[in-house]
Amino acid sequence: MYQITKCLVSHLLLFTIFSAFGIKTTIADPNIISKSQWNGVESINELSQQALPIGRVIILHTAGAGCQDVDSCSQQVRNIQKYHLDLHFDDIGYNFLVGNDGNVYEGRGWDLMGAAVKNYNNGSLSVAFIGTFENDPPTDQALEAAQSLLEMGVRTAKLIEDYKLLGHRQLASTLSPGAVLYKIIKQWPHWTRRAR
Questions:
Q1: Where are the alpha helices (DSSP H) in 52-172?
Q2: What are the residue boundaries of the Peptidoglycan recognition protein family domain, all occurrences included (predicted)?
Q3: pLDDT tens-digit readout, 111-167
Q4: In this predicted structure, what is the pLDDT of residue 45?
Q5: Peptide bond preceding 177: is omega within 30 degrees of 0, i.e. cis?
Q6: What's the structural domain count of the chain?
Q7: Residue 78 sits in which domain range?
Q8: Does any domain span residue 17?
Q9: N or C: which end of the chain has fewer CB within 10 A?
């Protein structure tokens, strides 16, 4: 845990120094596995469009098993989609999912409203880390992929520049995104205590 926190602090420090001198810093775009690539099924009904740019990002965990490679992560995402459909969702509830393999898996994407956090779906982007992060952190690759996704969102005007970042537990009675992951995201620059 100490190493991950130290690594994140180092990255933030370098970003701050570079920004102070007007040096642009860019994390490489994440590798996004499309819904068709992970063999997702089509939405049951037409999904609501999301008003862009989005002002709030909610970090969650999916709970249950994690994954370490494209095959196991794709299977987990299919399992999650099936579970959500069994609960009578119109599709997988998350906008994006992040695997411990360092890939981002497309759920509803940028342009469609998620169905992950009751009363907070409108105006929010839900990013779910695949697995349970109550005792162990996601991999460095997963954390970097999530941060890269958010940076890409700002750069492509899908997210506002000063978006607010929250953990799921700040908005609902839940352990999500897990104690360890929540502690990590509280160090990220856009994290806020305030839900609104």
A1: 70-86, 140-155
A2: 30-172
A3: 999 999 999 999 999 999 999 999 999 999 999 999 999 999 999 999 999 999 999
A4: 93
A5: yes
A6: 1
A7: 28-185
A8: no
A9: C
